[in-house]
Design a protein that fits this description.
By secondary structure, the protein is of the alpha+beta class. The protein contains 12 helices and 13 strands. 53% of the residues lie in helices and 19% in strands. Strands 6-7-5-8-9 form a 5-stranded mixed beta sheet, with helices on both faces.
Length: 458
C-alpha cells in the first residue's frame, strides 16, 4: 500500500473518530435539550390550563372544561391531557397513541426520548379541588432530533469528502519528491545515476533527496572504480601488454569455446607462427627492437586475416603467435598459410634482414579435441622448423597411429604437472657381471603418468 493511501486512510479514521465523538455529544445534547423542552412545555400547559379551568370547575361546567381541553389537545403536541379529582377519578380526559412519522425505527430505539408527565393542582379556596395532568407528545421532538442528526451527518460526510480531496491534492504535491526518489533508485539499480536538482520544500524530504543524490554520486564512483579495476585485471589476465593481443589464457578460452560449439563451428584452422631465434634477436638488437618486431608481426597478421571471419589472434608465448579461425576450409587454410609465409618472410626493421618465421597449420574438425588440434599444429610447426628458413607446414590430424601425439607445449605442461603432483614412477634395473651374475649397481629409470594414470612411452 502506498504512503499516500495510508495517510488518506489515517485521515479518514481520525475524521471518523472525531465525527463519531462530536455526533454522539451533539445528539445527546439535543436529546437532553428536547426532553427539557418537553418537560417545560408540559408543565406550562398544565399550569395555564389549571388557571383557565378553575372558574368553570367551581361552577361544575364540565362541557366548557371539555371544550377547553379539546381545543388545546387537538393541536397534537400532547398524548394525554386529563382533569382528575384529588382521589384519582377522571373528570375530563383526552388521549391519543404516540405516533412518530418520518423517523426510522432503529433511530427511535437507539435514542429513546422520555415523554414527561407534568401536573398542576387547582385549589378550591384553601384546599385542593382537582389536578390537571399533561403528557407531551415526543413525536415532534423525534422529528427535530432526526433532522438535526441527519443534517450533521450530511455536513460531516461533505466535510470528509472535501478533506479527502484536499489531502489527496496536498499529498500528491508534498510526496511528489518520493516518486522522483523511487525513479532515481530504480535508475541506480540499472547503473544509471541521475541527480535530482529540484529540492523539495519539506525539510525531511529535502534531507532524503540530498542523501540520495550523495549516494548516487558515491555509487557511480564506486562502480567506475570497480569497472576500471575489473578491466585492468582482465587485461592483466588475458591481454599481452606488448602487442595488445590476448595472451595464452585468453587464447585457451577461445579455443575451448570453438571446439565445444560444434554446431556453429564444425570446422576451422589453427595457425601457430613462431619467430626463430627471438632470444638471440633481443640480445643483439635490444628488447625495444624485439618489442617492435612483435608489434610488426602483429600488424601483418591482422592485415592478412579478413575481419569478417572474426579471427582470434593471440600471443601465446614469447616468440609465438596463434591465429584461430572458425569455418575455414582446408583450401582456404592452405592459401592463408602460404600468404603468411610470403608476407612474414619479408619482415625488415632495418636491424637485420634474415628474420625467420615458422608457421604450423592444423585443421579442426568437429570430432577433434582442443588438445589434439594443438598437438597436430605443434607437430606441423616442428616440421616447418626443420626447413631452417621461413616456411609453412600443414597437419590434417592431431593423431598418428594409435599413439597420441603431443606437442611441445603439451609436453611441457605434462612434465610440470607431474612435478607438481609427484606423478613420476621409478623402475629399478640391475646391472650384473656376465661371468658370475654379481650385481654391480642399479639403474633408476623414471616414467611419467598421463591424466588417465597410464604410463607414457618414452
Amino acid at each position: 500500500m502506498t504512503l499516500s493511501r495510508q495517510l488518506i486512510i489515517l485521515v479518514c479514521v481520525l475524521f471518523f473518530l472525531v465525527f463519531a465523538g462530536t455526533f454522539f455529544i451533539s445528539v445527546q445534547n439535543t436529546r437532553d435539550y428536547l426532553e427539557t423542552q418537553l418537560k417545560s412545555h408540559a408543565q406550562d400547559t398544565a399550569t395555564s390550563l389549571g388557571l383557565s379551568l378553575k372558574p368553570h370547575l367551581e361552577k361544575g361546567d364540565i362541557a366548557i372544561m371539555d371544550s377547553m381541553i379539546d381545543a388545546i389537545f387537538d393541536r397534537g403536541y400532547y398524548t394525554v391531557i386529563s382533569l382528575e379529582k384529588m382521589d384519582g377519578s377522571t373528570i375530563v380526559k383526552s388521549s391519543q397513541p404516540v405516533k412518530i412519522e418520518g423517523v426510522p425505527e432503529w433511530f427511535v430505539n437507539m435514542i429513546p426520548l422520555n415523554a414527561p408527565v407534568r401536573s398542576s393542582v387547582i385549589t378550591m379556596g384553601w384546599s385542593p379541588g382537582a389536578k390537571v395532568i399533561v403528557q407531551s407528545n415526543p413525536g415532534y421532538a423525534y422529528d427535530e432530533l432526526w433532522d438535526s442528526a441527519a443534517g450533521m451527518l450530511r455536513w460531516s460526510l461533505g466535510a470528509l469528502l472535501a478533506a479527502i480531496i484536499i489531502v489527496i491534492v496536498a499529498l500528491r504535491f508534498i510526496l511528489s519528491p518520493l516518486r522522483d526518489i523511487a525513479k532515481q533508485a530504480l535508475a541506480i539499480a540499472s547503473r544509471e545515476f541521475p541527480i535530482l536538482k529540484k529540492l523539495p520544500r519539506t525539510q525531511d524530504l529535502r534531507v532524503v533527496v540530498l542523501a540520495m543524490n550523495k549516494m548516487a554520486r558515491k555509487v557511480e564512483d564506486m562502480l567506475a572504480e570497480q569497472t576500471e579495476l575489473a578491466e585492468r585485471m582482465r587485461r592483466e589476465a588475458y591481454d599481452d601488454p606488448v602487442t595488445g593481443l590476448i595472451n595464452r589464457r585468453g587464447f585457451d578460452l577461445n579455443l575451448d569455446r570453438m571446439v565445444t560449439a560444434k554446431d556453429e563451428i564444425p570446422y576451422g584452422a589453427l595457425f601457430i607462427v613462431q619467430i626463430a631465434d627471438f632470444d638471440e634477436y633481443n640480445k643483439q638488437n635490444g628488447y625495444t627492437a624485439g618489442d617492435e618486431l612483435l608489434k610488426q608481426v602483429t600488424r601483418l597478421l591482422a592485415e592478412l586475416v579478413e575481419p569478417s571471419r572474426e579471427p582470434v589472434i593471440a600471443r601465446i608465448s614469447g616468440s609465438e603467435f596463434a591465429v584461430l579461425i572458425g569455418n575455414l576450409s582446408v583450401e582456404e587454410a592452405q592459401g592463408l598459410g602460404e600468404s603468411m609465409s610470403r608476407r612474414l618472410g619479408k619482415v625488415n626493421l632495418g636491424q637485420r634482414e634474415d628474420i625467420t618465421l615458422h608457421i604450423g597449420v592444423g585443421y579442426y574438425r568437429a570430432k577433434l579435441s582442443a588438445a589434439d588440434l594443438l598437438a597436430g599444429t605443434d607437430m606441423a610447426l616442428r616440421s616447418a622448423q626443420r626447413s631452417g628458413q621461413t616456411a609453412c607446414s600443414f597437419s590434417d590430424t592431431g593423431v598418428s597411429g594409435n599413439v597420441q601425439v603431443r606437442g611441445a607445449t603439451q609436453i611441457k605442461e605434462m612434465i610440470q604437472n607431474a612435478i607438481d603432483a609427484h606423478g613420476f614412477v621409478f623402475h629399478f634395473q640391475p646391472v650384473k657381471m656376465l661371468a658370475d651374475g654379481q650385481i654391480l649397481h642399479y639403474e633408476l629409470l623414471a616414467r611419467i603418468k598421463d591424466e588417465n594414470d597410464d604410463l607414457i612411452p618414452a
